[in-house]
């Protein structure tokens, strides 16, 4: 398989998975579109190893460690017949992508296999630092802007988007994977317990618990919002779209006072608002 075919394989993976936020969309600059698809395809494979199928935890860890070895081999310029790694090798060569960012992602997925609860928000943010932030940093390497301020803003946006994804998937995460991404100390303080997650209970304490999560995440997202204004062109617009989409999703989550475990999706009118917000933000 040649490089062009490998990129097309990655693009098909990106197009065939539902996402609330654009992945390798037509809005991105042309030079970034295919590399973004390759990065997404890699992350998708690692995520599927951690979450999908009937493998044991030991088997999942072994597969993720094998994936890490493939990354090591890629940086040693060893050839691969895997289309994702053919595309990634081209990305690494063209954009000088740091190996540590890929290894951090794999480490986060390994943590997903073994850790199901988080003691406090600080511990959860350490997970986001490896599960979400590397993706934003890789994108900035593709764009060619990696100063400290820009990276920090990207980290804020990516962590916020990761948290929003947790809030959307609370029922699925608990029922299918036995995971709770709401900090345990805050659950106890709100006089909520695991039966709320098991039975999908929504009452005053649960609403207040989740509202605290939404408000904090909104502040985190807005803390990174200047990123969309500082980046020029289509990439900057893409970032503004993603931030506006995150804000809209938080609003929809906050309105679900009858069932905080329901998964909202952005509809056509939501996307009209998101585009208007992204255009206006500039």
Short description:
74% of the residues lie in helices and 0% in strands. It has 282 residues and is mainly α.
Record the SSE blueprint:
Blueprint: H1 3-15, H2 30-51, H3 57-75, H4 83-95, H5 99-114, H6 121-131, H7 133-143, H8 148-168, H9 170-177, H10 184-189, H11 194-199, H12 204-224, H13 226-230, H14 233-254, H15 268-281
Protein described:
The protein has 282 residues and is an all-alpha fold. The protein folds into two domains: 1-114, Farnesyl Diphosphate Synthase, CATH 1.10.600.10; 116-282, Farnesyl Diphosphate Synthase. 74% of the residues lie in helices and 0% in strands. The protein contains 15 helices and no strands. It has helices spanning 3-15, 30-51, 57-75, 83-95, 99-114, 121-131, 133-143, 148-168, 170-177, 184-189, 194-199, 204-224, 226-230, 233-254, 268-281. The termini are far apart. Residues 20-24 have low confidence and may be disordered.
Descriptors for this entry?
74% helix; Farnesyl Diphosphate Synthase; 0% strand; 15 helices; 282 residues
